[in-house]
């Protein structure tokens, strides 16, 4: 690189900063400086009691509903004895005219009647109080928000549900094997071992019956119970998907059920005879081990369920039976004869074996004396029962009701379930249930399903101050809600059944947790070193200069429940600033975002959003309301909007609050003062043609946006990446993106900036607002081209300029704007596009660090990069390929971004390990700081028996707030056809690339519709006409703009490779040669290393040694090895935008992290770097050259078979997951929506 390059690169610092023209951020800060603030000091003890009281009132409301329904049922039974109540209203025969769709239930329902579903065997005179319940249930629904289904599940087999709706209409409905019913009538904890006989005497038909029966047992219990499933033939086998299953029973969590269901479904018939005694010996061992390590309640029921044909060998039948009963007698004696045995005889197509049935009955009754086994225990055994199963058996009724053999302790108390997926509607619910009795006769169970989003709304949207947050756990430490979890309203998968200690993973919290679980009320303060902090703690610091900070935990057991609420204050000793007595700006007009309700004539379309350019609009997200769930679940009306507007504009403070949090009005009024700035900038800004929208958001969820736009009511600005990144980088202009804008503007990049209570207090904890601007993706590359003429020299082939943000994601790069050389622009990382640079910068100490975090929402360990934004000077080649390629990287002052230039003078080879099949890391068992790999994820390994993470993952902090999907409020098609576009950028009148490039809604069309041929005369057109610069290319929006054509999509995959088929074949031959040389050198190196190091054997083990930038001591004389395999340009990595379903992610589980046959390494041809570096340029100040290891590590994961894969699959940011929900009335895209500007 010549001196011109160096000068241009250095001057880019100031020029790029200047071009951002972000005076709006600083003028907004000046406005907020002028406001008056009050100081508030935390009082966690008082606040936790107030919030706990509010939550208790909610739970009590549903307890009252359940108790009221119970009284009606029990009173109805008294009446039934004299005047039978037997009328049935079948749910599946209700006329459609009686029902209408209700969003709360996500089903067609009738809110005036209840209906019934029956189990297989119901007496025609069975008690059914359903018609007596109708009026009571309807009143309950009207007066109690958040209620979903109310039901009475009768012991005689009738399931009455309100409101009436059609469900489970194929066959009968056995509701008495549902976990909610089982836990209500037998609330004591159950320890269950299921043994499945799959010996040679069992036919495939019998084994299928056993599989089905085991699955029904598994699905009838809940987290309070513990389970193990064994198979027995010649040996005993347990589920191998978790090692703990071999030694202990596991709580019946959803994950344990999933793993054990997989195990059950894969059982095959064995060729060996069944060793019954071995199965029982292992079962008792598991029960005893579990009892020894857990503080087992005295009323725990222990059960062994044996699914077997009962066949023993002909030669030693009596001996086998005696041995089996002997094991049962001896083992049960060690457990005080408290274990019950239930046997289910698998009948072979109607053939009854009397000897086999007798043996299974003797096992159930533990009749050991019959076989001459002496009884040495003084305690009586708990006798079980034997039942015959065949193909005609209704397993749900017979096996699913196994619990009726257990003692009924007549525990008549209400119980709360943990969250689970609603099987009759959608979303997640908790159930409050209670058994009904008439004397000692069990009538059934009454239950109320409550929307989880409603129950947890006070915890989910808690915002007392910027310094605090809250979580809710049960009395065993299981986490129901925490700030890093997805909001229940948008939850699609139950979070991992996880103890709170894994979320609050900081030194000293273990002692706090112990106090929280043992004391009903209390508080505790601990000091946390900054280097052990959590991200949501750092974002709340008011004084980040200290080496340690205090965290205050205040908790309270919610009365009448098993749940514990905790409020946490970060740096409680430092006051928090809050806005005081704001007034609306005199010239400001408050326009609520529901433009569709207001019907004003000045509306237009901002791409696909209903909008107006006359004024910004204000959106109040769910967190702005006192009852967030009510806001989300109920439709807004014009009258409600008028009430909001009047209250928020009222400087006299005489208008009644329409249900908003007390601090919301001040935040709305404060943001109103920004409006004049926005409108004046609209008139003079030179960037209008590149800005999609401008917006400002406050901690309580107030969003003011321009152009004023209709937003989806579930949108929460506080949980968007642009907001969180800004708060994590206070005082810096923060880049986020690119993302596909849900509003229809294509790919956008967001820059955002925190607004503080004072310019002098720029810590995250003093943030009072975050302001953002969405730019078109190409604008930032246009900035580079305009500032650095060197970037234009060869159209980004050998000389490439780029901008990346502090996690390594590219904001500008030639491949992001090249129509023939890129995949979707989202989440493209420096490791994807510039692996040589990525490899080299990993060797710069203190500049970049690979991090890990545990994501409990999607059950993964995320690996991601964090670049040091405080570094001074430039970075340039330190190790790799310096004779062929040279780069210079420099931070853009005042931002979280870096500008870089790469100059390739010859081909080089560099690798960054990436998977092309999914985001799974190629080696989940090791991570080295100086080895290049793309951001990726590994399965989160949990000991299912204890709920604890593995030792390695227990060190990781919990990830930030989980990224949520976005949806666009769809407007009437008639409006879409008639309304004009708000902004006209006159694309057709732009005749040069520079005039068209990056302009809003414009594309410079350069490639013909075949995706290959360059146009003779490129031209400027609307984005929808040639998305990405290809004529006729359909946009990635799944709506009227079209779905990405399969042919074009495959073409885009192919064209991502910079070499053609012939060159690709040649490159393949070269790679075979290169890899052979690498393998040879690696083998020689290994031998030499083993010869020189007595610790070679230890080096071969799995390790994560360099997590803190530590380096191994290795040879210094094998410099050549690393150059071949560590560096590269990009060969083929097309990134597709897809949803990652839970099923797809679960393919990771149980898989070795060392598999890499499906992966690849980003790579390009380049010479071996044995030659000494020819770089004589001095490195910038503060960058330590040091002594850097050049060897290939012995644990280097396989990176060879990766080159053979040609599949291209999605890529996502480590913290960001974008499920795509396609509903009839909503367009959803994995994007960042915020929503901008008027005419150019």
3D architecture notes:
It is a single chain. Helix 8 packs parallel to helix 9. The longest helix is centred in the first third of the chain and has 39 residues, at 44-82. The strands form 13 sheets. Strands 4, 5, 6, 14, 15, 16 and 17 form a seven-stranded antiparallel β-sheet that branches. Among the domains are: 1-34 and 583-780, Beta-Lactamase; 49-178 and 414-452, Beta-Lactamase (2-Layer Sandwich), CATH 3.30.450; 189-393, von Willebrand factor, type A domain (Rossmann fold), CATH 3.40.50.410; 454-579, Beta-Lactamase; 984-1038, no CATH class. Residues 3-8, 10-20 and 1040-1239 have low confidence and may be disordered. It has 33 helices and 48 strands. 27% of the residues lie in helices and 22% in strands. With 1240 residues, it is α+β, with helices and mostly antiparallel strands. The chain is globular and about 100 Å long. A hairpin with an 8-residue loop joins strand 37 and strand 38 (885-891).
């Amino acid at each position: 690189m010549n001196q011109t390059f160096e000068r241009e690169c250095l001057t880019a610092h100031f020029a790029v900063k200047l071009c951002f023209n972000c005076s709006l951020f600083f003028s907004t800060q000046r406005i907020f400086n002028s406001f008056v603030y009050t100081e508030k000091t935390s009082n966690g003890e008082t606040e936790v009691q107030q919030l706990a009281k509010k939550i208790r009132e909610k739970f009590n409301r549903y307890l009252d509903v359940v108790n009221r329904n119970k009284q009606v049922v029990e009173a109805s039974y008294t009446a039934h004895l004299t005047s039978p109540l037997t009328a049935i209203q079948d749910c599946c025969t209700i006329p459609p005219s009686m029902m209408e769709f209700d969003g709360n239930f996500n089903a067609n329902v009738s809110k005036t009647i209840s209906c019934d579903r029956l189990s297989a065997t119901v007496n025609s005179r069975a008690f059914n109080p359903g018609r007596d319940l109708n009026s009571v249930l309807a009143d309950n629904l009207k007066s109690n928000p958040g209620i979903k289904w109310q039901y009475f599940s009768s012991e005689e087999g009738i399931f009455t549900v309100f409101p009436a709706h059609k469900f489970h209409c194929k066959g009968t409905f056995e509701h008495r094997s549902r976990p909610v019913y089982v836990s209500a009538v037998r609330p004591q904890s159950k320890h269950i071992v299921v043994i499945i006989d799959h010996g040679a005497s069992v036919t495939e038909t019998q084994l299928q019956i056993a599989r089905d029966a085991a699955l029904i047992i598994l699905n009838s219990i809940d987290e309070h119970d513990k389970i193990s499933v064994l198979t027995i033939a010649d040996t005993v086998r347990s589920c191998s998907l978790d090692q703990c299953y071999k030694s202990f029973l596991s709580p019946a969590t959803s994950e344990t059920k999933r793993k054990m269901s997989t195990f059950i479904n894969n059982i095959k018939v064995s060729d060996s005879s069944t060793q019954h005694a071995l199965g029982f010996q292992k079962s008792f061992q598991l029960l005893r081990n579990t009892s020894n390590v857990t503080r087992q309640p005295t009323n725990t029921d222990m059960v062994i369920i044996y699914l077997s044909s009962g066949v023993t060998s002909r030669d030693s039948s009596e001996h086998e039976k005696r041995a089996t009963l002997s094991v049962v007698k001896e083992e049960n004696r060690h457990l005080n004869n408290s274990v019950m045995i239930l046997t289910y005889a698998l009948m072979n197509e109607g053939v009854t074996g009397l000897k086999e049935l007798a043996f299974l009955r003797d096992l159930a009754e533990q009749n050991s004396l019959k076989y001459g086994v002496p009884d040495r225990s003084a305690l009586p055994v708990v006798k079980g029962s034997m039942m015959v199963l065949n193909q005609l058996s209704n397993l749900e009724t017979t096996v699913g009701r196994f619990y009726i053999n257990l003692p009924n302790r007549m525990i008549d108390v209400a119980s709360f379930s943990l969250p689970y997926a609603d099987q009759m509607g959608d979303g997640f619910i908790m159930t409050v249930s209670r058994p009904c009795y008439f004397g000692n006769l069990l009538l059934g169970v009454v239950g109320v399903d409550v929307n989880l989003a409603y129950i947890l709304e006070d915890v989910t949207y808690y915002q007392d101050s910027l310094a605090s947050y809250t979580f809710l756990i049960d009395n065993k430490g299981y986490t129901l809600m925490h700030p890093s979890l997805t909001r229940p309203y948008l939850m699609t998968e139950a979070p991992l059944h996880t103890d709170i200690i894994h979320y609050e993973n900081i030194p000293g919290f273990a002692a706090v947790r112990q106090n929280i679980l043992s004391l009903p009320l209390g508080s505790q303060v601990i000091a946390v070193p900054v280097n052990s902090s959590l991200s949501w703690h750092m974002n709340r610091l008011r004084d980040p200069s200290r080496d340690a900070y205090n965290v205050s935990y205040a908790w309270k057991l919610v009365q009448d429940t098993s749940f514990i609420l905790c409020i946490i204050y970060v740096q409680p000793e430092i006051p928090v600033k809050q806005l005081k007595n704001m007034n609306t700006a005199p010239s400001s007009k408050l326009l609520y975002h529901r433009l569709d309700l207001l019907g004003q004539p000045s509306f237009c379309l901002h791409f696909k959003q209903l909008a107006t350019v006359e004024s910004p609009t204000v959106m109040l997200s769910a967190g702005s309301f006192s009852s967030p769930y009510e806001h989300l679940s109920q439709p807004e009306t014009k009258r409600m909007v008028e009430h909001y507007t009047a209250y928020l504009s009222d400087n006299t403070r005489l208008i009644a609050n329409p249900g908003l949090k007390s601090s919301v009005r001040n935040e709305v009024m404060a943001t109103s003062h920004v409006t004049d700035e926005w409108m004046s900038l609209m008139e003079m800004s030179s960037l209008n043609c590149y800005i999609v929208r401008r917006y400002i958001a406050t901690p309580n969820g107030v969003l003011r946006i321009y152009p004023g736009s209709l937003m989806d009511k579930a949108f929460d600005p506080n949980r968007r990446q642009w907001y969180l990144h800004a708060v994590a980088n206070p005082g810096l202009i923060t880049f986020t993106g690119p993302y596909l804008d849900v509003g229809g503007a294509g790919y956008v990049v967001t820059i955002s900036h925190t607004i503080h209570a004072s310019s002098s207090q720029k810590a995250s904890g003093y943030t009072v607002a975050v302001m953002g601007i969405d730019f078109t993706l190409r604008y930032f590359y246009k900035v580079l081209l305009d500032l650095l003429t060197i970037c234009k020299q060869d159209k980004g082939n050998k000389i490439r300029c780029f901008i990346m943000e502090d996690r390594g994601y590219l904001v500008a790069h030639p491949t992001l704007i090249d129509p023939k050389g890129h995949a979707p622009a989202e989440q493209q990382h420096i490791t994807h596009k510039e692996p040589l640079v990525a490899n080299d910068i990993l060797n710069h100490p203190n500049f970049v660090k690979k991090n890990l975090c545990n994501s409990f929402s999607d059950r993964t360990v995320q690996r991601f990069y964090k670049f040091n934004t405080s570094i001074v000077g430039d970075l340039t080649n330190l190790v790799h390929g310096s004779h062929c390629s040279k780069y210079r990287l420099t931070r853009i002052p005042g931002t979280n971004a870096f500008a870089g230039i790469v100059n390739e003078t010859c081909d080089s080879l560099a690798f960054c390990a990436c998977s092309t099949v999914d985001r799974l890391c190629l080696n989940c068992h090791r991570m080295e700081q100086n080895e290049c790999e793309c951001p990726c994820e590994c399965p989160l390994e949990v000991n299912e028996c204890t709920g604890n993470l593995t030792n390695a993952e227990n060190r990781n902090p919990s990830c930030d707030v989980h990224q949520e999907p976005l949806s666009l409020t769809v407007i009437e098609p008639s409006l879409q056809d008639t309304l004009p576009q708000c902004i006209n950028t006159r694309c057709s009148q732009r005749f040069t690339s520079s005039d068209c490039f990056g302009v809003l809604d414009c594309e410079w069309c350069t490639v013909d519709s075949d995706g290959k041929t360059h146009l003779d005369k490129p031209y400027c057109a609307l984005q929808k006409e040639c998305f990405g610069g290809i004529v006729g290319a359909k946009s990635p929006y799944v709506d009227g703009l079209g779905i990405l054509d399969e042919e074009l999509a495959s073409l885009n995959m192919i064209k991502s490779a910079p070499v053609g088929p012939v060159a690709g074949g040649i490159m393949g031959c070269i790679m075979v040669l290169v890899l052979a040389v690498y393998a040879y050198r690696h083998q020689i190196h290994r031998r030499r290393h083993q010869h020189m190091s007595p610790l070679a054997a230890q080096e071969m083990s799995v390790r994560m040694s360099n997590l803190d930038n530590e380096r191994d001591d290795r040879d210094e004389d094998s410099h050549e090895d690393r150059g071949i395999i560590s560096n590269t340009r990009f060969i083929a990595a097309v990134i597709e935008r897809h949803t990652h379903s839970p099923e797809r992610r679960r393919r990771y589980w149980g898989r070795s992290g060392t598999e890499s046959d499906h992966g690849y390494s980003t790579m390009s041809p380049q010479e071996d770097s044995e030659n000494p570096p020819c770089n004589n340029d001095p490195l910038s100040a503060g960058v330590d050259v040091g002594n850097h290891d050049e060897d290939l590590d012995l644990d280097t994961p396989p990176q060879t078979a990766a080159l053979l894969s040609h599949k291209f699959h999605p890529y996502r940011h480590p913290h960001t997951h974008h499920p795509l929900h396609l509903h009839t009335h909503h367009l959803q895209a994995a994007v960042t929506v915020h929503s901008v500007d008027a005419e150019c």
